[in-house]
Amino acid sequence: MYHQKMLHMDASKNPNIKVFTSLDAAYGFNKGDLGIEIKKGSCCEAVCFKVHKEVMTANSLYWKNLMESDVDMSEGMYPFEFDEESFRKLLNLLYKGKCFLAEDKIPAFMRILDFFSFDEVLKTAYEQILPHICESNAVELFVQFNRTISVPPPNMEKVRRVVIENFSAVARVSLFYLFKEEEIVDLIKEDKININEQDLIDVLVWYSNNFNCASDLSNEQRGTVLERLLKYVRFQHIDGEYINLHFSAIKLLHRPAIQQLIQFAIDGKKIGSDNQLPIQMRGPKREAY
Q1: Distance from the Cα of residue 3 to its chain's centroid
Q2: How far is CA 99 from the centre of its chain?
Q3: Contact, 11 vs 43, CB < 8 A?
């Protein structure tokens, strides 16, 4: 029974344990069936965390035997010390399918991996050794934790395909970590990506303010890419005030082409109706203004 045993961990042995002590209810790690007791020092009072049993179920013999054993963990015996190596052992149980992790808990659970061996986890997920992480979760993890990780080309193509098909479910800026700028222009120009105009503007604002992200292009070349992207925004579907407000954040406003596009959008809105941006703006291929 999970509630009958308590794992005792001494934070003084490994500073990474402090990660656990900072987790709150939003992550679901302070509730559940499996108790994890953490001492911040020999003179400190232990802090107890409760982990959901879905994280480590009885179909793992390792955990089943540990929880049902007669080992007196309070006497300094640590069958599972919460250090990096032991954490990898836990991950190996997940990798091999011997320890089930409910899919809806994966994103929250994976947040702590940034302190351990995220590269290893992600590599394993892409190699399809981790059976309980679906593709959309893997893409989310890729974007959220380590945008510079090296992904083998076949798997990168797979991730790109998932991003294109499920773009609304992943971070907008993932475009610029998964595709070359020229490829992004083509995706938007040919209407191959499920993105509405307002989200597209958010992406462009982010791009203009993050010229230091991984890329071989110079600032001038990036400015040209930004101009090209702006040419495929259907400004007639966006409120003029929204455009004026958000494009003021773009650092390249001095570029004449961008200024003209903004003015076109604002003037066009004054002439047109006050329709709000539709939820979906799919339609014929975009045509440059």
Answers
A1: 32
A2: 23
A3: no
Instruction: Give the model's confidence band at 244: pLDDT under 50 very low, under 70 low, under 90 confident, else very high.
Output: low
What angle (nearest 5°) sits at the alpha carbon of residue 150, between those of residues 147 and 156? 85
How far the first Cα of the chain sits from its last, in Å, is 67
Of 209, 197, 199, whose CA–CA distance to 253 is shortest?
209
DSSP letter, residue 38: E
Mean pLDDT throughout 120-131? 47
CB-based contact 44:73 (threshold 8 Å):
no
pLDDT computed for residue 190 by the predictor:
76
Q: Cα separations (Å) of 69 from 5, 6, 79? A: 9, 11, 11
Q: For 60-89, what is the mean pLDDT?
A: 42
Q: How do the residues of the chain divide into helix, strand and coil, expressed in percent and rounded to 5? A: 55, 5, 40
Name the pTM for this structure: 0.41
Q: Say what the pLDDT of residue 208 is.
A: 66
Q: In what order do the strands lie in the sheet with 34-39?
A: 6-10, 34-39, 47-51
Half-sphere exposure of 27 (CA within 13 A, CB side): 18
